Amino acid sequence: MSKLMIIGCGGVASVAIHKCCQNSEVFTDLMIASRTKSKCDALKAKLEGKTNTKITTAQVDADNVEELTALIKEYAPDAVLNLALPYQDLTIMDACLNAGVDYLDTANYEPEDTDDPKWRAIYEKRCEEEGFTAYFDYSWQWAYKEKFEKAGLTAILGTGFDPGVTSVFSAYALKHYFDEIHTIDILDCNGGDHGYPFATNFNPEINLREVSANGSYWENGHWVETKPMEIKREYDFPQVGKKDMYLLHHEEIESLAKNIPGVKRIRFFMTFGQSYLTHMKCLENVGMLSTSPVSFNGQEIVPIQFLKALLPDPATLGPRTVGKTNIGCIFTGVKDGKEKTIYIYNVCDHQECYKEVESQAISYTTGVPAMIGAMMVLTGKWNKKGVFNVEEFDPDPYMEALNKWGLPWVVCENPETVD
Ligand code: NDP
Hints:
- The protein is an alpha/beta fold.
- It contains 15 helices and 18 strands.
- The chain has helices at about 10-20, 35-45, 65-75, 90-100, 115-130, 140, 145-150, 165-175, 205-210, 250-260, 275-285, 305-310, 350-355, 360-380, 395-405, and strands spanning about 5, 30-35, 55-60, 80, 100-105, 155, 180-190, 215-220, 220-225, 230-235, 240-245, 265-270, 295, 300, 325-335, 340-350, 385-390, 410-415.
- Helix 1 (about 10-20) crosses helix 14 (about 360-380) and helix 14 crosses helix 15 (about 395-405).
- The N and C termini lie far apart (about 50 Å).
- It binds NADPH dihydro-nicotinamide-adenine-dinucleotide phosphate (NDP).
C-alpha cells in the first residue's frame, strides 16, 4: 500500500495520474493537489469507477511553503511528485523536508521573476563561472543534498522524458554497452501535426523561453555557447523521416556531464519546422516573449503570459495531433578496446496516446516516466538518501517499466550519426 501526492493538474500531471490509476497495485492512494481544484475534481470524476486507486483532491498554492507543508502532513503521503511548474521546485522541496516526505520532479528550478535582483546576482556569477546563460540550472536543487541526506529522504530530479528517460538511457548504455562513453547526442523529434498555424506542445511560457534562448553544449570539460538556433542538422528519424533539428541548451547536459565519467561531448537537438520558427521569431521581435510586466490600459500584464492566454491550450491538442515522436540518444564510446556506436530511442504515436489517456504524445512521454520514477521510490527500488538525478540509480528496473507502461525502446547498433 502506498500513497502519492501529485502537485499540479496540467497536461503532464493528467497523464501521470491516468498511469498511476492503471497501476493501482503500487499506487493505492493518490492525492491530486493543484492551484485550480476544479481541474483535479474533473479528472477524479473521469477516473473513478475505472480504477482501484483511491483519489482525493485538494486546492493548494505550491508557492506557499506553510500551506503546502500542512497539506502534506495532513495527507501523509509516501512521496510528493511535483508536476506543477519549475518555479515551484524549491518551495515544494522545502515543504517535503518540513513534512519528512520524499520528492520527485521533471524539470529543474527556474525563477518566475528573472528580474529579481537577488536571483540575478547569483545568476550572473554562475554565467561567468560556468559559461552558459540558461535561466535554469541544477545548482539550486543540488544545494539541498545535505538537507535530504540528513533527513533520511530521497529527492529525484528530472523524471520526465528529457531529462528523465534520456538520462536513464545513458546509465543503461554505460552499464550494458560501454566501458566508457565519449559522446552523447540527445535527439528530440516531434513529427506530430496539430493543424494550427502555431501552438506549443506544453506550457507555452516554459517552451518558448527554452527555444528562444542561446544554445549550448558540453565539450572537453566546459560549456560552448551558441546563438539561438545557430547549429542546424538534418536527421532521418526511424518511423518519422527526415527532419531539421537545432542545437539547444538542455538541463540533462549539466547532470550527465557530472555523472557519466569520461564523457567528452554532450549535445541536445530538437526538431522544429520552418513555420514554427518564423512565428516564434516574429513574436520575439515584437516583445511577446518577454517575462517583464508592461502596463496596458492601467493594468500590468506579462507579455508571455498574455500570449499563453491567446494560444491553444496544449491540453486540447490531443484529439487533433497526428504523427509520432522519436526521442533518444546516440552514444559513441569504447567496449573491450573497440569503438562502438549505439542509438537508444522510443517512438510514440500521438493518436495512440490520445486513445489511451486523452492526451498527446508530449505530455504522455513525460507523464509516464513521472509515474515510473514515483514507482521506483514507492517500491523501494531506488532508495538512496539525498538529492539525485535519475542516471545515478540502477537503470534496469526503470527500463523494464518503460516497456511495460507504454514507452517501449529500441537499441540500434551502428546508427546514422550526427556530424
Ligand atoms: P501545465 O501548465 O499544463 O500544468 C501545470 C500545472 O501546475 C497546472 O495545473 C497549474 O495550475 C499547476 N500550478 C502552477 N502553479 C501552481 C502553484 N503555485 N500551486 C499549485 N499548482 C500550480 O504544465 P505541463 O503539465 O505541461 O508541465 C508540467 C511540468 O512538466 C513543468 O515543470 C514542465 O517544465 C515539465 N515538463 C518536463 C518535460 C520533460 O521531459 N522532463 C517535458 C514537458 C514538461 P492551473 O491549472 O491553475 O494552471
